[in-house]
Amino acid sequence: MSPRDWDAGSYERMSAPLEAMGRDVLDRLDLRGDERVLDAGCGTGRVTAALLERLPRGEVVAVDGSPAMVEAARERLGDAVDLRVADLLELELERPVDAVLSTATFHWIADHDRLFARLREMLRAGGRLVAQCGGAGNIAALKAGAERVGEREPYAPALGGWPGPWHFASATGTAERLRRLGYTDVWTWSHDVRVEPDDPREYLGTVALGSHLERLEPALREPFVDAVIAELDEPVVDYVRLNILARRPS
Fold first, then answer.
1. Where are the alpha helices (DSSP H) in 78-122?
2. Model pTM greater than 0.90?
3. How many domains does the chain have?
């Protein structure tokens, strides 16, 4: 399946909680200010803008699979960033980067072996990977609610039996994968974040359930989100964030 093209306007309105998490990840990336850095999954460019501020003599390559997201990032960042619409599994860079930064992206990619192998090849010797994504147990109640609703009519023809768009890997499994693929200085851990959206319907429809809605006829999309919200004890999102630090060997 080709990468989903997100509703960039809605994401821009709803993504403040993800931006806050992303800025925390950026704080883990020590920079001199002259490095070349890949933002892998830049969205509308909120965290990219903060990264750019830390690279006054450097260079940012920002990539997203959604054309709408990249266009929104271009409106925010102009020509200051090398923005590209690309699948991370297919991305080719002309020159390696000193670091890869990624927030809230890797759990949308099924093949983590190929993902981390590709990112390793993009890093120069000694280059760093600093990332965060959804980990094992992420949005568990929401995921279970979406699965229950998806088995009912009229949603079952499109969603019944579908496992969902996510790959929520464990910290231990990810560390083992990274070491097997040749990374060193590997450190992975998980932590919990609870988000209480001001507008649960728009937040869930855009940030969490957009891939479900793509599979449904337009008339079924809002009723599906409302039915999933009705399955939840309270309209919150309980995230489990998987944090990743690693390095390509010198």
1. 112-122
2. yes
3. 1
